[in-house]
Amino acid sequence: MLRGLGVSLALPMLDAMSGGRTLAMAGEAVGAAASAAGGSASPLRMAMFFLPNGMCMEDWTPSSEGSGFELPPTLKALEPLREQVTVFTGLALDNARAKGDGPGDHARSAAAFLTGAHPYKTSGADIKLGVSVDQYAARQIGSQTRLPSLELGLDRGALAGNCDSGYACAYTSNISWSSPTTPLPKEVNPSAVFDRMFGPASEREAAEGRAKRLRYRKSILDFVADDAKRLGRDLGKSDQRKLDEYTTAVREVEKRVERDRELVAQQKAQSKVPDMKLPEGVPDDVQEHFRLMLDLLALAFQTDATRISTFMVANDGSDRNYRALGVTEGHHTLSHHGGNKEKLDQIRKIDKFHVEQFAYFLQKLAAMKEGEKSVLDNSMVLFGCGIGDGNRHNHNDLPVLLAGKGGGKITPGRHLKYDRDTPLCNLYVSMLDAAGVKVDRFGDSTGPLAKLTA
After folding, report:
1. Which pTM was predicted?
2. Second CATH level (architecture) for the domain 45-188+282-294+304-454
3. Angle at 131 between CA 449 and CA 127, to 5 degrees
């Protein structure tokens, strides 16, 4: 940590932190950063991205298997990262199926996506599901970082009410569950995420630090500059460059967060009618919001603030439109395309947009170096849906891919095809194993997923 007035700033992994070397900084030993990484210079990270409403599968699915496959149109943005990506075909989410409960595929899709469990159908408070894979991992390895896990998203959610054919809103708007009856709401406000990641330990320090920062309009980095300078004198050129790149990235994110805070305040001041509650600190532009949250998650991984995160791009059944893409009709409405070419073309635009943002995130991780590897090399980043084709509401042949090498335990750069209805939870068993979390079964798994290592 770098420390200043009411502020602590986690550092990325530096070369000087490995090999048993300890640096003196501000009169204290800072070998703690390496200890926080579990004694290893390369902690393993897990992130799970959830998308709503299915995909245009013909533009998602590669035409050939194995390595050297051609990326289909929807995945073209991943071309610079193709050797870091594994695309799966044949994986299924059996407990997202009705099983006698009738309609409600969107609720079951989100609910089962990371839990592998079938939600109890209710629109009341008696919700019941299962523990999600991220929280299963957090129970065992979350104590190694400041934040055991980080739940992010772009849409606000609800815990009460009927959101899908008799299913509670808790099912459609949450993918992370710490117990069968406890969903973990996602944070959609970049300001709140920033404060959670870089805030001090005590509320008294928090109040003092924020007041001081607002009074002098200084950055967090201004308060830790002295510590950074002292540290820099003891670093080699490579680490100095890494520290400069990191502090520049933090400052840029903070500036964008502060700019959005000011913009929201201005909008509130100018808005006289209607008299309604406005979202706090959330950018109106979906791409700006998306990328700001991705930048924050990248920083959280780089600094080892957390190693486990979920990212819900939208609540399942979301009918958001994407006017900046020329898509004026809602996403959910379009997903019931009935084979209509114009609607399918609109869905393709949305699908590509989501993949482009994901590629942006992966490129950031790939640029963050950890010795001879990158943060992306030492990560497993899942990206997918609990519905295949939005028009059919099927829960087999799901659009799912995994980015990263899992610290060398995964061989990416391939399209892997499996037998029909191979459980998606088999992949989760393998991911948990790679993260050092031993488990025989998870959800409806039948064992680890084959072929992940060439």
Report:
1. 0.81
2. 3-Layer(aba) Sandwich (3.40)
3. 130
